[in-house]
Model the fold of this input.
Amino acid sequence: MAQTAPLIYKMRIKNPNERGTPSANKSYIKYIAERDHVLKKDASMQNGLFGKIDGVYSTDMKTEDVQKKVYDLSRKGVTMYKAYISFKDFTAKHLELNNFEDWERYVRYHLDTIMRGYGIPADRFEYTAAIHKKLGQPHIHLVFWDKQQGVTVNFVKKGVSDDIRRKLIHDTFKNELAFYYDRSSTAFADVKTNINKFINEMQGISDSEIPEEVISDLAKTYTDILNDLPKSGRLAYAFMPKEIKDRIGAFIREISDKLPEVKSLISEYYLGNRLAAQMFDSSDTEEGKRNIDKKIRKATADLYNRLGNQIIKSMAKIRKEMQKRTQEEKQTETDTAGTVLSLVSAITRMMKDSNSHLPKGEGNTVGSHDLSASALKDLIAKKKDKGHEA
Done:
């Protein structure tokens, strides 16, 4: 089902150097001021205009006076920016935009976003606005200008207005966006917790409720990746060879497929991101679909990067423990060999001392007290086998 963005913002200008621009701008003021569904501060008033002109704010503007001001400025080459902010009925109701004062407050609150977006200093920014309570599509018409404009503005890049639209949405719906972002963040945190729990269960650190065959299958994939990790360099997902990254990505999908709770949480993570994305773009337009898909791809990349790092970190810890164990075993062999050599050396000295007391010609004979090279080698080998028992 197509999803429409909750706020639509558009802005257009007419080249002030074109013939007919002053008259067109003058007519536009008449249109927004006195349209049938214009919202007035008081029913007896001529129009629904409000704004700031010549440094004075007013909610009681005369249509003819504003028309003359806009016409004269247009003839001098001053650019008239015509902006439009639209909502659905239920959105306006949700925002509690019920009367003239509510709408007026909304416009004045967001003027800073507009003046900053188009680079007009606050002390030079002037405007007139009107609210049209059109059934099904209440909206704001805003005409503004730079009263000390230096260079004539003939066009504005689409990206500038699009940035303003996004900022307006962000500021208008900050509570809703905070809810969606928190929904996504909480789901991701729970995914990490579940994966940590699984890794501990896989290593037998904690009891497991996961079926043994599932643990066995996942453990095999995990171990295969662990054994193939680079032996040097930084162990981070972003720096892994593509083949390893692909295998880790496949492992994450395998975990999701085989652990229902993880799968549910990842779906929740994506839902939060999609709902937030749909606040800014409409899924009923091709451009909107592309923008939403782009954000979902970014969310996917972030998910795999962060979970990938978590998995690699656990593997690095296991590898470190294995290396430590190997070093301890080597140290044990070294200590054992050292003990044997010390013992042999002591025995050799004792034999020499014993032979020194024998009559000449009777020492150094091959007998029960002699340690040949072969015998020494056998003794060391036996000593290694016995560890520290010597």
Summary: Residues 286-355 form the longest helix (70 residues). Residues 363-372 have pLDDT under 50 and may be disordered. The domain at 8-172 is CATH 3.30.930 (BirA Bifunctional Protein; domain 2). The beta strands are 8-13, 38-39, 50-53, 56-58, 81-86, 125-132, 139-146.
